[in-house]
């Protein structure tokens, strides 16, 4: 494999994917997830730019890699009887397209045949927008905290459904017994009666339309419809990989 998509982003001056490249990547990725979920019965749980590898179309870079290693061998050291080599990068493909993307690194995968409530880590939004959808940086502690992440989600998606909150193990830390947040406040900040129990104010209400910066008109609307099929509080409201593969934006049907 040539490199991961994180390295491709690093080499790209804009540090983000084009719309067409994102479509191709997502088609391959969703096809892989469809197989994992329905045939292999596995959940990856750690989808990120680091774990999506790109194939090699330009075979000449393999020969150049070998020649470079022969002329200037990589630094190495012995550790507990093993030889550890410094990494050597491939040259960029010369005038040829990159190969097919492939999902890798299944070290955090879990069985799909039992119910899970662990965290997952998708960051496809980052590839196109060049920024996170949620940061979770706590304004008091100045580091990532669950309460800050949840507050950002409420600001973007609105309050979680009450039936979902009733299933939560930590719901009482963030919501009152009715599952209410300070919705009576126009700026959606925490009110003094303690409805929001995260001990930090909710950010001002925002939207995907405000967060998305690169598309316009019907194309932007179609892309955000695609995103909203995944960005849902309740798991049962999120479309499956096979359903997402039929999306109009993903298939250039605009």
Description:
The chain is mainly alpha-helical. The protein has nine helices and seven strands. The strands form three sheets. The protein has a three-stranded antiparallel beta sheet. A two-stranded antiparallel ribbon has the order 2-7. Strands 4-5 form a two-stranded antiparallel ribbon.
Short description:
This protein has 254 residues and is mostly helical. The chain is 33% helix and 8% strand. The strands form three sheets. It has a three-stranded antiparallel beta sheet.
List keywords for this structure.
254 residues; 3-stranded antiparallel beta sheet; 9 helices; 7 strands
What is the element layout, followed by pairings?
Layout: E1 3-4, H1 5-11, H2 19-40, E2 42-43, E3 52-54, H3 60-71, E4 76-79, E5 82-85, E6 101-103, E7 110-111, H4 124-129, H5 146-157, H6 162-165, H7 208-211, H8 217-228, H9 241-244
Antiparallel strand pairs: 1-3, 2-7, 3-6, 4-5
């Amino acid at each position: 494999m040539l490199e991961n998509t994180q390295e491709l982003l690093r080499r790209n001056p804009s540090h983000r994917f084009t719309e067409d490249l994102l479509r191709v990547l997502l088609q391959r990725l969703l096809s892989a997830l469809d197989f994992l979920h329905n045939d292999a019965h596995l959940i990856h749980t750690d989808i990120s730019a680091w774990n999506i590898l790109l194939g090699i179309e330009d075979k000449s870079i393999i020969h150049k890699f070998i020649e470079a290693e022969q002329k200037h061998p990589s630094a190495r050291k012995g550790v507990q009887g093993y030889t550890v080599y410094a990494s050597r990068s491939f040259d960029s493909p010369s005038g040829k397209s990159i190969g097919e993307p492939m999902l890798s690194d299944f070290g955090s995968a879990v069985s799909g045949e039992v119910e899970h409530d662990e965290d997952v880590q998708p960051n496809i939004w980052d590839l196109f927008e060049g920024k996170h959808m949620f940061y979770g940086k706590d304004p008091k502690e100045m580091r990532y905290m669950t309460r800050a992440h949840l507050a950002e989600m409420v600001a973007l998606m609105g309050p979680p459904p009450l039936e979902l909150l009733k299933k939560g193990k930590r719901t009482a830390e963030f919501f009152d017994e009715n599952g209410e947040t300070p919705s009576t406040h126009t700026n959606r900040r925490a009110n003094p009666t303690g409805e929001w129990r995260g001990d930090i104010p909710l950010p001002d209400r925002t939207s995907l339309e405000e967060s998305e910066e690169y598309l316009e008109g019907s194309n932007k609307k179609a892309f955000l419809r695609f995103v909203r099929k995944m960005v849902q509080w309740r798991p049962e409201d999120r479309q499956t990989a096979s359903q997402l593969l039929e999306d109009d934006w993903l298939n250039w049907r605009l």
